Amino acid sequence: xxxxxxxxxxxxxxxxxxxxxxxxxxxxxxxxxxxxxxxxxxxxxxxxxxxxxxxxxxxxxxxxxxxxxxxxxxxxxxxxxxxxxxxxxxxxxxxxxxxxxxxxxxxxxxxxxxxxxxxxxxxxxxxxxxxxxxxxxxxxxxxxxxxxxxxxxxxxxxxxxxxxxxxxxxxxxxxxxxxxxxxxxxxxxxxxxxxxxxxxxxxxxxxxxxxxxxxxxxxxxxxxxxxxxxxxxxxxxxxxxxxxxxxxxxxxxxxxxxxxxxxxxxxxxxxxxxxxxxxx
Length: 280
Prior knowledge:
Elements: H1 2-16, E1 21-25, E2 28-32, E3 37-44, E4 53-58, E5 65-66, E6 71-73, E7 78-79, E8 84-90, E9 99-107, E10 110-113, E11 117-122, E12 130-135, E13 143-151, E14 158-164, E15 167-169, E16 172-177, E17 186-195, H2 196-200, E18 205-211, E19 214-220, H3 225-279
Parallel strand pairs: 2-11
Antiparallel strand pairs: 1-3, 3-8, 4-5, 4-9, 6-8, 7-8, 9-10, 9-11, 12-13, 13-17, 14-15, 14-18, 16-17, 18-19
């Protein structure tokens, strides 16, 4: 709330006094954790030096403004023909450093804020979306709710939509967080309602995730309980037949072994009797 009020007041101040135009570059930058990035604030027609320019970060989860100890502000301006450039450098960037960074310049008792620089810090350069599907076990009478959860990538970098039996539907996309801690990760959630008639007849519902020019998808559909029970019964029957066959083979083997042992014992007894007869 404080961040929103601050930005609103800054915007109104810039509108009332159009003598200073504050812009920022780059508009968005994506980097790997541990790297260094420099954000620049371009201030036209300002009379003060860069020490009057401050940098604030808006946390993407809480929406609050904060400062970071690893942000080094350059108080020496880069004077150009048409503008003055004031920079801020972030070293040893962490994933928690991700967010929108705004520079603000004070002039004539008014605060003028830039358009913002979106910083995205990731653990590695080989990130890819992880898709998890959540569906209702049965329709509620009119529709079935389906959820497509996309994690592992920043929500602003992905485009999520649905293919319902080949028909494209945008669904409802929103970004959310795993929890409220500082180590929370942001993920994308897309929800869609499928008509009960389509869901009950087992229509294929595919969640499509577009990321950096690639398309990844995952499909879910209702399983017919009748067919599932039929297949389960046949599996149990096959297991039962297999078990009986194994028991029959074991019984036959045991019987054969016992018969062989009895024959050996009889032969041994006959030989012993013959030896006794000869000795007498």
